[in-house]
Structure of Endonuclease/exonuclease/phosphatase family protein:
Amino acid sequence: MLVWVVVTPFAVWAVLRPVPADVHFRWVQLVAFTPYAALASAVAPLVALASRRWTALAVSLAATASLAAWVLPRALPAGETAADGPPLRVLSSNLLMGSVPATALVDLVRKLQPDVLTVQELTPGAASALEKAGLARLLPYKTERPRPGVGGSAIYARHPVTPGQAIEVGGFGQAAATVDVPGAGPVGVVSVHPCAPSRADRFRCWADGLAALPPPGRTPRILAGDFNATLDHTAVRELLGEGYADAADATGDGFVTTWPYRPWHFNGFGIPPVTIDHVLAGPGVGVRTFAVHTLPATDHRAVFAELVLPRAA
């Protein structure tokens, strides 16, 4: 009996993870920790082997192999990109209700020289502070949707911006725009931030916010921000299935975590860090590099990707 107590949780995890739906609110929370489950699952075959329970050994080996097959490729680079157009550097940061000092973010922009910056949890005060700190001199074009609390967002760019229809779900406004990149033409950008599935009553808001993200189109498209979801969540897997590529996964940095980078507790339990901040690149857009950067006064790491756009016809 003890053997099956060890084996069963990993077997159930391996069965539920590929299900093309969010089977339950609690599963949505748990599945974010699939890489940890894959690592821990290696114990189950050892216990089964030591106990000489051959059926349990077979089940545990299958579960471990399945979990490993889903997570290990994140450490393997995808290889060279076929795109041959201009580069596009993308930076994204969750400002934690506008708490990040404007000077710290502007200093990071000055250091990394992104062509596009997407921010989440942009408050009116934070938007004003970024203006005063000189962000407009570095990224003069923008579409801003600041709000008190956690629902605001914005896109800032080095090149001209045409604001698009923001994605409005549950009080979260995910800013959208088209950036006119020289040599590549229009590039669609969304500052992603659905509400967090922290409570059962927020589950539908979270699911709808992710489902509303646009599929790849005829022109290049970038989704960058705080997805409140990992590569193991159904909604993100569906986006990847539609043709998006996760920049961290493409460069072999898929195990680099983004939240929380400081100790964080839920119901008295410490939360191990996971990867919920992403840069997703549409079909035809190559990925050169990916990195995370730490900013003060936020629990998210900023994510930065160097992309390569297809050349305009």
